[in-house]
Give the backbone structure.
Amino acid sequence: MRPDTVESTFSDLVVQGTHRRFVVCRMGQTGSAWLSKLLNSHPDVYCEHESIISKIYPKAHPVREDQINFVKWMAHDTKHYAYQAVGDIGSLDMDLALELPREHFTVGLLLRHPALQIQTRLNTLRESPPDPDNDDNLRQMEAYINEVFGINPSQYDLADRLFLIVSWLWYCQIQNAREVNCVLRIEDMAQVKSAQESLLQLTGLEYDSQIIKNVMKSSDDHLIVTAESTKDAFNQFSDRQRQWYKKMIHDFAEKIGYTL
């Protein structure tokens, strides 16, 4: 948390209404669309999914100014006082979310087992791979990877560079886990009691067990995690990628229960 940026960014934020507001940060392929469905199963909760995209159309990617304006819109919108908790998943970068005034906003971090998440993300990127050599953000990430772990991604082929970039993003998110109000592991949502505890932390509201069970009937494979599935995902990485996983992610993942 950076107190100076908190004051400069949202010191003049005007919040309308008394309902709880929440935002959830996440990487791609973590089950966020399903989580928004689960959150919306409560009659007093309204949760949108990446709603910032509709507010910046026809732009495809929001910049920091767009995200600040999005927060101001959330603070102003009362939703006609129809809900006790209103939020969004996937519209804010973690850096900005951590600057939100916590007396008005609850900040959550959605995680999925890194071996499965990285594997799924890489499969998606292969369909339309980015070009790290011509993307300033990716080049900056690669510079950080080199600085923190002593690995120079530019020395490797595109598949390895993408693996390192996706692993870096997971590493960055887990570093912020201590600063959010609640960490939500998508796999925990497969257990009713764990789901209730996580949803209560985020929204401040109790979720009926039967409502959760009904939503679980339409769950996707993000909730299906076994020792065999994580080992299978890990074993699909190359020898070099497995070494990088152990160096960049393994210890942090184990601390929050993500074993191999």
The two ends are 31 Å apart (CA to CA). The chain has twelve helices and five strands. Confidence is low (pLDDT under 50) at residues 1-6. The longest strand covers residues 105-111.
